[in-house]
Each structure stands twice: as C-alpha cells, then as structure tokens.
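User: Could you write out the 3D structure of this protein bound to calcium ion? I've included everything you need below.
Assistant: Certainly. Input first, then the structure.
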Amino acid sequence: MNSQRGFTLIELAIVLVIITILIGGLAMPLSAQIQARRIAETKKTLEEAREAILGYALTHQTSGSPPRPYLPCPDTDGDGREDRPGNECTKQSGWFPWVTLGAAAQDAWGNRLRYTVHADLSSKTNGFHNDSAPPPGAWNQVCSEENCPVVDVAADVPVVLVSYGANGRGARNVNLPFGSPTPALPPGTSAKEIENLDADHRYVSRPPSKPGDAAGEFDDLVVWLPFSVLINRVCPAGGCP
Ligand SMILES: [Ca+2]
Ligand SMILES: [Ca+2]
Ligand SMILES: [Ca+2]
C-alpha cells in the first residue's frame, strides 16, 4: 500500500491562510522597526550636530581682546556652508551648516536639519563669555505646546536643531535642487509642527502623535543647547573672560 499522498485542497488552503496571517503579523512590526531605527538614527545625528557646534565654538575666536568664542551661522543658500558675509550671520535661522562643521547633511529621511542660533553668540564681533549674565536678545524657547503659553521644556537656549521627522512636512529634501520654486515639502496643518517652521524663536518638543489624535500630528525631533552647557563645555573654569 502506498502511504504517500499529496495535500488536499483544504489542507493547502489552511496552510496558505496560516502563511498569510504570519506575513501580516510580521509586516507591521517590521515597518515599525524601520521607523524606530530611523528615529534613533536621527536622534544620534542631532546629538552629533550639537557636538559639532560645540567643536566649532572651541576652535573659533573673535579677534578682539580678550578673544572670545562664537557659534556658527546657519546655512541659508543650501551649500552646507555657514552664511556670514562679514562678522554677522545673514540670518539667525536656516539649515545646519554640515559642510562647515563636517557633520551629517541630513536626517534618516533624507531631509536637512534646521538650525537656529542666538545673534550675539554667533557674532564674530561679540562672541560669548562667562564673566557676566547671558547677553540680551532673541533667545529660543522650547515648549510642549504651540505659541509657548508656558516655557515648560527649555528656556533661553542659544541653539535649537530640528528634524522634521518621518512626515518631513516643511523640510527641505537633500535631492531638491536649490533655486527650486518649491523649496520645501509642503507644511501640514498641525499647529505644533508649524511652530517649528515659522520665523519666531519658539519651538515645540513633545512625544509623537498621529494625525487623528487630539493633540494633532507631531513627529518632529528637536534638540537644543542650553547656555550653561555651552559655557561649561567651551569655557570651563572661567576660561572665557
Ligand atoms: Ca551657505
Ligand atoms: Ca514633522
Ligand atoms: Ca516657531
């Protein structure tokens, strides 16, 4: 008697159903894993960008007496180099000057990082020092809500860096040529994300939320450099009189 036999159609159907369920179960976690990896990669990129800014301050000094360190200007024309026609920055907010700083040019979604810096601290005339209170001027505020009703995340920070996250809304993709009539991916309608795009000195940092959530869509990644950290790292033990 021949003990071997083929699968019946019913058995084949059951196997196919099981395989389909298994693939479906694996597919979602896989995309979530890829997203989590990109977020972790971008957080690392932002941390390295912040270190590169500190490295610049450690190697650049004003010509005055005493010489004082200063921070890099934003890149505003897209070549990755800081835009400083004389001693001052062209603008206080633009793109992270990755060429000048020898750092990563983009986040894990292929978009540029936004970089905002305090005017006096990036001035090649003024620089910064640790023998007085922080200079006046437009300091950056980081809050958990748009419009900063309460500055509850970080107050008066010299530097803010932003990745526009997985949705990339408002970001400049690295493949977009400069001078293009559409310089950025269109911003969305989320007030919290728009706060990270407009021209004021207020930024939002908070946990991510989806488009349908009560808080509105938010997936930006934001890091900042407090003035105290800047002084401690660049001017330890009163090193910048
Ligand atoms: Ca430039
Ligand atoms: Ca975003
Ligand atoms: Ca803002």
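The first helix runs from residue 9 to 59.
User: Perfect, thank you.
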